[in-house]
Amino acid sequence: MSAVSKYCNKLHLTIISSTQRGYVLKQTTKIDFNLRFTYKDRRKPSLIDAEGHIEAGKFIVLCGCSGCGKSTLLRCINHLIPEFYEGKITGFCMIVGNDSSGLIIRDVCKQVASVFQDPRSQFFTVNSSSEVAFGLENHGLSHDEITYRVNEGFKKFELEYLKDRAVFELSSGERQLIAILSAWALDTNIIVMDEPTANLDQRAIAKLSDMLSELKAEGKTIIVSEHRLYYLADIADEYWYIDSGEIVKCYKSKEMLQLTEGELACMGLRMPELRNLSLRHSDSTYDSAEYKLNDDKVHKLTCENVTFRYRGSKNNTLKSASIELKAGEIVAIAGPNGNGKTTFGKILCGIYKASYGKISFDGLALKSKELQSKSIFIMQEAEFQFFTNSVWNELKYGKKINPSLEVEMGKMLRLSGLWELRNRHPFTLSGGQMQKLVLLLAYFSEKQIIVLDEPTAGLDGRSLKTCITIINEMKKDKIVLIITHDIELIAGACRSCVWLEDGSLRDSFTLDSDESIRKFCIYRDERLKAVTNEYAVSSIKHSFDPRIKLVIALFCCATSVFVSTPLVTAMFVAGMLINLYERNIKSSLCYGAVYAVLLFAFIGFPNVVTALLLNVIPRFLVIGEFVSALISNDGGDKMITAFRYMHMSERVIMIFAVMFRFIPVMSKDLSLMRQSVQTRGFFKTLREKIIAFPEYMEIIIAPLMLRVIRIAESLSASAETRGISLSGRRESYTSLKIKMSDVLIFLAVLFLICFGFFYTRIVDLF
Predict the structure, then answer these.
(1) pLDDT per residue over 218-243, tens digit each?
(2) What three-state secondary structure class fits 732?
(3) In Å, how far are 596, 600, 603, 620, 648 from 606, measured between CA atoms?
């Protein structure tokens, strides 16, 4: 305890009164620590006598190569270590005058708010406003206080356009802004962030920078683990360089900006500012004269007037997009998030079929299936593209292996720093290591067209340089298109860049000098400032009161198994009525179509089989209809509120919350898994698909289950840092009020059920 006592007298608290309306920082806090930590089942320590002192209100940036211990240090500060991530820890971490080793995570979360790298796996609801309110509900604020705090946050940071939005329809950058707003709403003294810009475009990064400036102005102590450093140049107070678990040196902001390019390269860091950004690919570009002489031998991909519209959308996502790509060149597509870049890439790879236009390869027009055989799309979500149990097997899967290919694979694994990890399961790799592995999948692909979607997200400077080397090797005999916001990648690898905005390819830039890359940066910044936050207003969905809906659903689901067919039919119609009222038209039509087929089959072919089907299957349809109705529209938010109104246990409520949340996540993840199998081209013909069906199911289900485990782990960590373990009564952000329309629908449903019941009785009498 002597070490703890030594640091206790250095720590001070400043208590400031707070008012209900308007934010006032309640207390300022120093952080002192001296830590050594080794994860369970690992021999090498992740932190080795990491010692530091953080003054209240300081902005600290943790930098260093992937795996150096940055995230581990953050987990020690927010107390996920050792309570959530197991291992051997020694030393201390002083927060608010207490050694956190003597605290539990629900106590620490009152002082420390956390933002994780992947917002998809830390959201506990599917509505943006409810997500901001989630932590406030756990901390026991009243409904009025929660509502005020949520509204104040969206207004303060000028994010009103993100209110009440489905979080899984938001871009990566928008989701991360919601995650940061959720952390701010908790009103803690300390905020820790783990690579918050890993999946953000330049516009979102600029907005994040503004939010961080606001948080710093409020007196928050902010600790950010980050690879992209340039957006922090005017905010950071200190940069802590960490290497192999040790805090090697602390740089003041001015000192970091004065480091030379060589010094940054030795440390494995990215550029701390972009003012002196220069073109880096001149030493590895192809000889243009040689390619001009052999231009007829160079593969070409031509896209002419391609238009695309998603099913159910009123507007075209792509509008007459035209481009020509050649082997030997690396072209970048940049532009705001949500404007069609990834969609365009998937069309070029045959994953999506263009609504209009022509795509030709070497002068021959190709259909979607033919494009799939010639192209591979590397997704931003690396973990959806792994189907085997080791790094080595992942590279070999689906290929005819020979000694020379194995030698080449070994060489590239060493270049990527993955050789020592070749027997590791891909899901045990870090985010940066996964990114390098999927790049190698593209490198060793036999496809002639490579489309890379954000291939350097979350990479440190050393890994970025390695990826640029791999990409430059690809271009020798492949057409390479990169969808990216990473200006350092563009400067290091791309000969030209196309700007895509509002579904149109607006401008193109030849990047052949330092001046050209600077002109593109100026153009990019101007275009992003001009983009407005305009979204189509969706039709307002009517939502049936969840308390009434829950009672009706429980009654119908429980009794539909035992009652007669006429009463089951009445319940089925009642379920359809509720779904139609809530605008779940697609769901209602599907269930109605199945019921109609059964009915007409019995009328047309009356026999024992059709009678049995008509008697049994509708009972399951009733259950399906009401389950669909329970989680419709709001992702279960109002249903959770109904559970609280009914004084249900918080543990039970959280189980239902997780179930409601996982349904849309798994639906999207399954779609991405299928697209990955498509683009890898494992099963080319229908016959191959039928023969390999068990294998197909295995490579879909196994990674999906691992994905579920990873999400559950991240979700649990997020929930813990946001006070889910706190005891006490909670009120919901979402409010409930019975409307007249609810009463009318309830009476209609009650009439249908009663009619079905009495109809059965009358039939029995006669």
Answers:
(1) 999 999 999 999 999 999 999 999 99
(2) coil
(3) 15, 9, 6, 21, 47
